[in-house]
Design a protein that fits this description.
The structure is a homodimer.
Chain A (H helix, E strand, L loop, with lengths): L9 H9 L9 H12 L5 E5 L2 E5 L7 E7 L12 E3 L2 E3 L3 H17 L6 E7 L10 H8 L8 E4 L8 E2 L3 E10 L14 H14 L4 E4 L2 E4 L1 E10 L8 E10 L5 H11 L4 E8 L9 H10 L4 E2 L6 H6 L4 E3 L14 E3 H16 L1
Parallel strand pairs in A: 3-6, 3-7, 7-16, 8-15
Antiparallel strand pairs in A: 1-2, 2-6, 4-5, 5-17, 8-16, 9-13, 9-14, 10-11, 12-13
Helix pairs in contact in A: 1-3, 3-9, 7-9
Chain lengths: 353, 353
């Protein structure tokens, strides 16, 4: 097992963490190293569930914050071990999100007596099917491990606070018709033609822009797929439009479904999948102080992230991490050293003051 | 090899022909029997190409008519040997189209000196891919075998003349957009949404009704398929609408393509496949006499049939046969005996008078 030297700065620690390969499903060795390093810190109590490691201070502070990051990465692209060049670390996991994990580990090591109680969560299986997600598993098995007043998910945000996340809903709009031979099309009823009005409504729909805590969540209601047709000489009797609605976190899943049904009133809408958004929680004093401390204009998070799991547990959460999200999941993934050190300093300042 | 007894009436002969199984690709035994039976008739000269048998009188008549029928059937459905019950023959090939073949064979046998020269064509591979079609093969290899002033394709029409056939054109309408994550849909351009206008135009298009020789060909321009979408969280960058246009036989393939391009003006239309229609040719004296002889109101043929192959060779052609087209290709396929005998009598009367 690799010994993690938490006296390294967060950038150097990022390199060490990345070089312990941990593609989803193979987080064990890295989780072992993280657990051992945290157990060596007497101010923390440590729990483990599968390859998720949770460590906590218990100082009786008025507030508790959760710092969380996933240990796994997408599959390698011939991009390990890391290569450091011109102030940039190249390699799998550098931006998404071992640089964020390194920052959290540094806070754990350097602040035996933080000004807020802190829970550190390092979890497995974020980059694969949602049902395998380690954070979700802990939320089911041991939700009290995740209790807190405010959470920071250290996903790549370019060192800006990205607040909450939007919800997502997927539905199928099913159009029915009657088959006939296309040489006698008037004997049938064309289900694909019937989809024209559905697409026109979607194209014409003006999505909401919802301001919450000063962040503007721009929604989107889109067809993400369409399929219909039996054969080249048959009038189609079914057409299916798959719709994805990304909705502001102030809406519930039920409210989101109602929006889709209202826009597509008169059509058969089958909701197949929903996930709630997460409120940014920036009006929470702790979050407001956090944004103030970061010193950059906070942004809304549009894509769905695990902050919504905290939100579902009643814990306001933001995304904040040193990586550039646009290079995640790429062979050319990298992370600049400067924002890693900036995040490290800011987190230490915020919790150590 | 089964000896065909052409002294049987056309209904009894239908049973014999059906009981020689001849699913497409296995026409050999039936073609052998047909060839042998025709060679035994001294007034005919017989040619063969693969499993297509062509026999001709050479009496120097002013006109030549072609009687044609395919020997193959769709796959069996546990519906052979034939079963005769209450004036109806049940079994594979009864309606489509061995009853028509039986009528033509009876004419060949009973009329050594018809009032018009007659060419009899019995061909293979009609029920499968067009490139295997025996009539098409003969049209390429030996077009002079098919020469004539008028052709009767003895496909099932319920003993009514169905004139010509419509043409068919298939095209893809390709819509392009730009991908983006569906959580930031405004960064992309949704190709599926763009298809809405295409479908609306198709749904609103008023298809022509074209009268030719007293028959009204009702056209149809339809989406027969649509596909688009990358993933549930991606704004689609491509959508493809497959369109089928069934057009009156007075239009050329080029004119048909122009209609589609005009309706879908501004969109990228990729024509993938066309087949010309066939004019009914009912103004031809021979055809007019034929319709008069049949004594029923002629109808337009909407679906594409092999009459268009005759049309392409400059031979006006009609469909006329005893079977009911609506039971073709079904396990419950049958043919009533009465229309078989009616067709036999009418054909004998027409060519024997």
């Amino acid at each position: 097992m690799t010994d993690l030297d938490l006296s390294l700065d967060a950038a150097a620690l990022t390199v060490v963490l990345c070089d312990i390969e941990s593609v989803s499903g193979n987080e064990g060795p890295l989780a072992d190293a993280v657990e051992a390093a945290l157990r060596s810190l007497p101010h923390l109590s440590v729990d483990r569930d599968g390859d998720t490691v949770v460590a906590r201070t218990a100082l009786g502070r008025a507030e508790r914050v959760v710092l969380a990051g996933h240990l796994d990465t997408v599959p390698l692209g011939d991009n390990l071990p890391c290569r450091v060049e011109d102030g940039r670390i190249h390699g799998c996991g550098t931006t998404d999100m071992k640089s964020g994990v390194a920052v959290a580990l540094r806070v754990a090591a350097l602040l035996p007596s933080p000004n807020r109680d802190v829970t550190y969560v390092f979890y497995d299986h974020e980059e694969v099917e949602a049902e395998k997600n380690g954070l979700g598993r802990v939320a089911r098995n041991n939700p009290h491990w995740l209790a807190g007043d405010f959470a920071v998910l250290m996903e790549p945000t370019g060192a800006t606070v990205e607040g909450g996340c939007q919800g997502t809903l997927r539905a199928d709009v099913v159009l029915r018709g009657h088959r006939s031979h296309s040489a006698r099309s008037w004997m049938g009823s064309n289900a694909v033609h019937a989809a024209g009005e559905v697409l026109t409504r979607l194209a014409g729909h003006r999505a909401d822009e919802v301001e919450i805590d000063g962040l503007v969540y721009r929604e989107g209601l889109n067809a993400v797929g369409i399929t219909g047709g039996v054969a080249g000489n048959v009038i189609p009797d079914e057409c299916r439009v798959t719709v994805n609605y990304r909705f502001a976190p102030s809406k519930s899943e039920e409210e989101a479904a109602a929006v889709v049904r209202r826009v597509l009133d008169g059509y058969r809408v089958e909701v197949s999948d929903t996930a709630p958004g997460a409120l940014p929680g920036l009006s929470h004093p702790s979050a407001a102080a956090f944004v103030e401390m970061v010193g950059r204009e906070p942004q809304p998070k549009f894509g769905w992230t695990d902050v919504s799991r905290f939100s579902a547990l009643g814990v306001p959460a933001v995304n904040y991490g040193p990586g550039d999200p646009s290079v995640a999941h790429q062979r050319e993934e990298y992370c600049d050293i400067a924002p890693i050190l900036e995040c490290e300093q800011k987190m230490l300042g915020w919790l150590g003051a």
